């Protein structure tokens, strides 16, 4: 659903759109059939409601690596802390996420740290090979998403990074 | 065996999930980012995203597949067909990591993977082979020498080949040099191995393949043959079981040859021994497929034996639970491969998103398909959309039911085209209906079949 | 569909759009067929409702009584002269439509005739029984839809009648 | 026979269309205004709207159905099950109008329609019958006299009954008067005929029915039995073939009885002879169904014989093309009826529009269903949404596959509920799995089964 307010959309349009939408839904509903999509526009206000063909019950099931102990990790896109600030650094492969080079060592980074481009921020181990995850640019770590030792999928967000530019912004 | 990782996608991933369900096994399916919202992913007990759409970085990337199995605590891996299914390395890596690979041992796989070497082993085992080489031909000069000996027509084949790719028929000496160079280049590109071998080429033969099943204890049976003579450039289009060209005695003979050959390479699991049947009724061994095949359902429908479940059971170490005398072929089955291709344009891929879908159903029709409304058919993967299989008490009845099923089939979407109409034309063609066809059929009749439809 | 004129859309447009939408749905509904999409625009207001998951090819195929000679009659709703004025008098059963009591007789009515409520306007024969079709009210015949001798379905419009009220309007 | 009018709707209309297609026959389907946009209507070669949603004015209205056949130049009529399928008048009107009725003659139908008369005919033919009356019981006083003679428990049944309606079990003399009055009223309402007959009631019996097929030339065969003991108030819920309770000798015996009975009434076409099997292994004839039955697919899956096509062929006058010795029962099949009912609320109808639909598929699963996304399930018609049928090499395998299929089934829509979960519970219940059940099973275990699910 997108409400695209350009400049000052007249309040009347907004209210009108709301009325029309309610009307459209009520009518669609009374027809006994579920629409796939309702789109409407009033002046500068537009609303689009989309019940995509993917049926509700067919929504992707947890893609978690179930069965692995303490390893049930939400899939990429499911809950990657998208509401959090910054960009996501995603796992380039399926494997085990480690925050430190060894169990005894200190973590590479913690939330709040400022990292430089290319700096190691985590490791994903796959088939006994250690793949270092590096910062794509200079920034401040705003979140570390999996727990140490979690299994992660390809594309799963690992860390969120707020870019700081080459100088502090 | 408790939890099986399925290293594949599409209809075969769904097929394996169903077999696992029937056996009470849990399933984990791997998928690329492209395949995240697909039926196998939703239907499996768990799913792991292993890479981007490109197969080389996902379904063909052994470390990702094995890591996914370990991460999801699978204890077995079923590779399906295509992708890594005939990769001896994967079989070896699975073994090293304590995973049961659903297929032959790495050693048997390696023996079968080199098609020239397989020829040598089968000759030794006493199988009839067409004149040809049992080692890779190293040079153009050697190719000419071999040609001198075995005569024309001949066929050049990639020793690492598969799926009907990397083959060229050469009908005269004057075409040999060019064909050799081109086929070697193709083989290098397709299989990263430019080795070729040479065989006499048979005109007017049929493709007859025998389904075999071997356990880990040295026992093997065959489940009868399939006739896959409706081919387009060595690609199977339509398959049936039994072959209309075989008598029961021929079936017993070729079946016995197939089992003997499979046991000779120490094979375990479900596999296929491919033969050519010449106009005089003689069989010639061609190659072995060390995997479940696309066309396995026709065998399942005439024998009542679940081949995928059988793969899993023998992989788990079970002894064969039936003997050759228990395998009964009842009735007839035909499979039509519905591909996202346009036969009128040289079978060019026609991919897109399925917006309107109706899959056939009803009595004696089986449809193996991962399609649903909204499925995106991607050029990254193979063109197979659905396998429609029809059983009948005899060949004629199965053909009539197939026509009914094809009439019910509808796969629409912007940019999509399918091979449905071609199948309808074949199923209505007197030459096909009257006892089946030889391998030259589709090449000879294609224009005619797609035009009249 | 977005019509973005930035001024306030007149309230009249909104109301009109709502009315139109309700009307469109009612009409679609009464046609007995399922629309895949309704889109409408009034001034600055536009609405689109899409039931596209109902497959396009699932649209009703001709329901004609094929095979019967000179009897291929479109089904109810398919082409009932809905654009023509007046109300439709529909067939109460499946059968053969006759305009006259016998082959030699004059037709009961012709286009332009004014008929009284209860007056016979046609016959539908089924299983050798003659079912008289009568005018539901006083009016002028604006169309006679099947040909004499056509096979008709239940609910198929036979005649269109422009009501004239109890007195000439 | 060239063009068949199908006087039915829903899944059985679709089933008949498919059989006609297989035989090269054209199809015309009748429909009410409610059913205009349904799969059978779209799939048939032609369709005729015959009336409003109420069955009495459309599917049950003989003049409209026959007129539609004549108008569409059909030369045969298949009535399906329910509606007019066992109406002797329709058979007679078809004959008068030159239409081949796909079913027995009007005379045979009339003989079978009166269940008390059928009892008399079967007694004459030497079939074993439970003590009871062979004519309608006219009064309460007579009912008491009969009860005196045959003892309790007894069952009151409508002579014009069918589909499990119009039956009351009476366990003691003190309940007889009330039960007699109530059942007579029910029968009058349901069948427009209040006649009742009385039979000894067997506790702990199984419902075993034999599929028979007779041609117009006096030949008849049976196709084995179905066990339909999972019932709820005389309504079948789940059926299977063969019965886990029968030995091959018992199968031969009851099959021979069934054929003898069918030939005794001059039956033609496909029909079913229903028996009770008591705890001592004795069969007792109950009644005959002069139509194709809902549960016919389980017989088709174990015999490989298309019963609907067979109906059409014998109706066209063909002699039986196989003998009793050619009928082989292979493996086991189970059918689950997926109804739009809520088992937790006394199987109350739960109708609505299907907005989300996934029908099972894959190996050895057959689904007969007219559903598609958007289908409106109307309270005007019966609650059957889909028949899910699973075949296996043995009962255990078919049950496992059925569980897999039920897990894939999804029928959702506002207001809708289905019997899916109940079937899952039965398929997971040790009592059912361990050799099947007797007729008291579901009544006794229902609360338990729907609660634990």
The fold-level CATH name of the largest domain in chain B is D-amino Acid Aminotransferase, Chain A, domain 1
Shape of chain B: globular
Roughly how much helix do the residues of chain A carry, as a percent range?
A: 10-25%
Radius of gyration of chain B: 21 Å
Structural write-up:
The complex is a heterotetramer, with two copies of chain A (169 residues) and two copies of chain B (453 residues). In chain A, β6 and β7 (129-134) form a beta hairpin. In chain A, the strands form three sheets. A four-stranded antiparallel sheet of chain A has the order 3-10-8-5, with no helix packed on it. With 169 residues, chain A is mostly beta strands. Chain A has one helix at residues 11-30; strands at residues 37-42, 45-50, 87-90, 95-98, 114-115, 120-126, 129-134, 139-144, 151-152, 157-163. Chain B folds into three domains: 3-102, 3-Layer(aba) Sandwich (Rossmann fold), CATH 3.40.50.20; 131-200, Dna Ligase, domain 1, CATH 3.30.1490; 206-452, 2-Layer Sandwich (D-amino Acid Aminotransferase, Chain A, domain 1), CATH 3.30.470.20. The termini of chain B are far apart. In chain B, the strands form six sheets. Chain B has an eight-stranded antiparallel sheet with strand order 13-12-9-10-11-14-21-19, sandwiched between helices. In chain B, strands 3-2-1-4-5 form a five-stranded parallel sheet. Chain B has a three-stranded antiparallel sheet with strand order 7-6-8. The longest helix of chain B is centred in the middle third of the chain and has 17 residues, at 248-264. Chain B contains 15 helices and 22 strands. By secondary structure, chain B is α+β, with helices and mostly antiparallel strands. β1 of chain A pairs antiparallel with β2 of chain C.
């Amino acid at each position: 659903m997108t409400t695209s307010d350009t400049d000052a959309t007249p309040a009347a349009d907004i209210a009108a759109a709301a009325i029309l939408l309610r009307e459209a839904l009520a009518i669609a509903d009374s027809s006994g059939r579920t629409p796939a999509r309702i789109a409407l526009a009033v002046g500068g206000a537009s609303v689009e409601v989309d019940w995509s063909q993917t049926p509700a019950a067919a929504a992707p099931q947890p893609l978690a690596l179930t069965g692995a102990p303490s390893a049930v990790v939400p899939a990429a896109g499911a809950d990657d802390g998208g509401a959090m600030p910054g960009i996501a650094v995603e796992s380039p492969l399926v494997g085990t996420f480690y925050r430190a080079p060894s169990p005894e060592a200190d973590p590479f980074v913690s939330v709040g740290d400022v990292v430089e481009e290319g700096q190691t921020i985590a490791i994903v181990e796959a088939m006994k090979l250690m793949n270092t995850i590096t910062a794509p640019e200079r920034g401040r770590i705003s979140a570390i998403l999996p727990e140490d030792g979690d299994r992660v999928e390809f594309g799963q967000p690992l860390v969120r990074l707020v870019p700081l530019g080459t100088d502090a912004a | 065996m408790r939890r099986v990782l399925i290293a594949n996608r599409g209809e075969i991933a769904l097929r394996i999930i169903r077999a696992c369900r029937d056996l009470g096994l849990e399933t984990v399916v791997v998928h690329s980012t492209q395949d995240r919202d697909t039926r196998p992913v939703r239907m499996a007990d768990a799913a792991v995203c292993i890479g981007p759409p490109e197969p080389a970085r996902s379904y063909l990337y052994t470390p990702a597949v094995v890591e996914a199995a370990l991460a999801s605590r699978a204890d077995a891996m079923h590779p399906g067909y295509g992708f890594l299914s005939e990769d001896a390395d994967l079989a070896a890596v699975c073994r090293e990591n304590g995973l049961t690979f659903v297929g032959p041992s790495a050693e048997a796989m390696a023996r079968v993977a080199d098609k020239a070497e397989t020829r040598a082993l089968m000759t030794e085992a006493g199988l009839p082979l067409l004149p040809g080489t049992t080692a890779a031909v190293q040079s153009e000069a050697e190719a000419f020498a071999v040609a001198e000996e075995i005569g024309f027509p001949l066929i050049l084949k990639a020793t690492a080949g598969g799926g009907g790719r990397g083959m060229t028929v050469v009908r005269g000496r004057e075409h040999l040099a060019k064909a050799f160079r081109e086929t070697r280049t193709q083989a290098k590109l397709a299989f990263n191995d430019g080795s070729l071998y040479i065989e006499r080429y048979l005109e007017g033969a049929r493709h007859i393949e025998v389904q075999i099943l071997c356990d880990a204890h040295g026992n093997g049976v065959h489940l009868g043959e399939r006739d896959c003579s409706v081919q387009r450039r060595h690609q199977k289009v339509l398959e049936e079981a039994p072959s209309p060209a075989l008598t029961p005695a021929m079936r017993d003979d070729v079946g016995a040859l197939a089992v003997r050959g499979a046991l000779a390479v120490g094979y375990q699991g479900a596999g296929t021994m491919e033969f050519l049947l010449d106009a005089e009724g003689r069989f010639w061994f061609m190659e072995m497929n060390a995997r479940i095949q696309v066309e396995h359902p026709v065998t399942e429908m005439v024998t009542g034996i679940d081949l995928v479940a059988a793969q899993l059971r023998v992989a788990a170490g079970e002894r064969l639970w039936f003997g050759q005398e228990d395998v009964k072929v009842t009735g007839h089955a035909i499979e039509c491969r519905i591909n996202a291709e346009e036969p009128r344009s040289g079978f060019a891929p026609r991919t897109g998103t399925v917006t309107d879908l109706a899959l056939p159903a009803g009595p004696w029709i089986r449809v193996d398909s991962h399609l649903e409304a909204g499925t995106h058919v991607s050029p990254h993967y193979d063109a197979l959309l659905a396998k429609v299989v029809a059983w009948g008490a005899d060949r004629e009845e199965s053909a009539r039911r197939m026509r009914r099923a094809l009439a019910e089939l509808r796969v629409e979407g912007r940019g999509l085209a399918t091979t449905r109409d071609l199948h309808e034309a074949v199923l209505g063609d007197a030459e096909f209906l009257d006892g089946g066809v030889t391998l030259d059929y589709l090449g000879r009749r294609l224009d005619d079949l797609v035009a009249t439809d």
